[in-house]
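Cross-posting from the modeling subforum.

Setting up a comparison between two proteins and wanted a second pair of eyes on the formatting. Protein 1 (sequence, then structure tokens):
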Amino acid sequence: MKFLFDDESFSFEALRAAGYIAYAGADLGEVLVTCRQIPEGDEAAWSARWAATAARVEGIGRDALAAGHRVSAREALLRASNYYRVADFYRRDDPAHDEESTRLAAASRQTFADAAPLLDTPARAVRIPYEGTTLPGYLFLVDDSGVPRPTVLFHGGFDSTLEESYPAIAAGALRRGYNVLAFDGPGQGAPLRDQGLTFRHDWEAVVTPAVDLALSLPEVDGERLVLIGMSMGGYLAARAAAFEHRIAACVLYDGIYDLHEPFTAVAGLAASAEGGLDALTAHNTQARWVVRNGRWTFGVSTFDEVVDATKAYTVAGVADRITCPTLVLDAENDQFFAGQPQRVLDELTCEKELVLFREDEGAGEHCHEGALFLFHQRTFDWLDTALAAA
């Protein structure tokens, strides 16, 4: 789905940013006026223009907060947080030593942290114990009654952040009576940037401590605990659910059978390109980002090492250990994992269903960007039915 840019990666990321309009994470005019100032494929301009928009909108939020306008402050700070995330997206050449990348990521976290207490039911920052340290999370509650409710455990994937979890899943869940415990794991957000924690394939080591924390909270109905993983999180959640059986239902958003395959495909493109990987990444925005983000999030120096590291990231041989009802989502035009959700479904032996989101309904992009309402409707309607049956 072309959106504002011919560059496929720019188009997708602009659509992703704009899609959060659904839950006050963006405003269409701000997206349009920002994108029209960015030349095709110009990553420096992308970062600068989104950062400028983020700073301007943050100023609106700060002024509204100082004047006592709670809703206006909340909405502006939520938009600013998303825009700062977008501004940092392509800064992956050396993010650990890129001062501007560090600043943008911190600004995205801080603006969200300042918006969280302004939600109708304030979000609660939590720390999840994890192997001698902690992982950051937010507990989003439907209300302050303390009534135990069905609760979603949510994590992202290859590039998503904790703060993105609010428009991506939590806002829609809250409207339907679900609490949400969202968190960043190794390879993601603050654990990667601040603690140097990189991805691991055995994601049950990450989810099990989150389950432990969730079950200690009075607001959580321990019999109705749901795990949802976004993007690469579709593999991570499946892996965790295969070993963590306190989960009542699982949603793979979307299904990933073998993470190694798309990275091998990029390596194949590099091998066939005149000039190799350097030539490919010089002219292909998506490949350049995949290579750079992969090196950082997996904690390696070369793309060959990234490709080798992803060999362990497959549900082959473990999917049949998932015992809870599982919803596998698919996107007709997925540019990363085409065909993989069906392969996951075929491996599952639990109660299962696959839902295909189509291009002709505006939902065919990876993770159904631009179609949040449809994604939430189908996902939570399925969960309502699955949890009621259980």
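Protein 2 (same layout):
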Amino acid sequence: MIDIDVENLSIAFSGRAAVKAVSFHVPAGGSFGIVGESGSGKSTVLRALAGLNQHWEGQISFGGEPVGAKRDRAFFRQAQMVFQDPYGSLHPRQTVDRILSELPLVHGMDRIDDRIARALDDVALPQSVRFRFPHQLSGGQRQRVAIARALIAEPQVLLLDEPTSALDVSVQAEILNLLVALRREHNLTYIMVSHDLAVVSHMCSDVGVMQNGEMVEQVSTDRLRLGEVSHPHTQELRTLSVELEEPEEKPVSA
């Protein structure tokens, strides 16, 4: 397990500040949610952490080691990202087998067949999906494939970009509960971005609230549930959110 430190992260696009001196710490094996409205800068922070945005200032450290704008292959084995749209993030003309074999091949990993089988088991997908194409799967199944693709590299960090927002309400809780279980089983560190405070409170022990590019408050989920917040925007999001109740437990299934 590794921890994550972000200090004074600032990002600008065409001279306009999108992220302003954001700092936070995620302990090894911890879970940190970043919540905010569209345009608040939350996804921009996540993309900088993932190495997808190379134009930033400040310091980002994984496991106590600062990382630069450009990341090496070892970083992308250590930290993986799960995107919002499972259909858009999977190559439509590749089978699940091909999609899942790509990262192990790039990293020169052995026993690829065994790794694929184990990854499908981890996300509760039947082995029969292995030679199907993404369009032959449901939205929930496609997101499970995307999670399996992230896990197959044996990362220590998962960066989650609204991983349930493109899914039907009926399967959102299943995917969230799966992610909670995987963090425990694989000793992962999570950072999750969402506009939904209830989702973040289910997934994460601590939350950072973004507004206009600034992280205006950091609060534990326990304090958030009790309404013990200090910034007006946090209170506003809490009021507008669905009650901060944990999603209904459902069995993890396809």
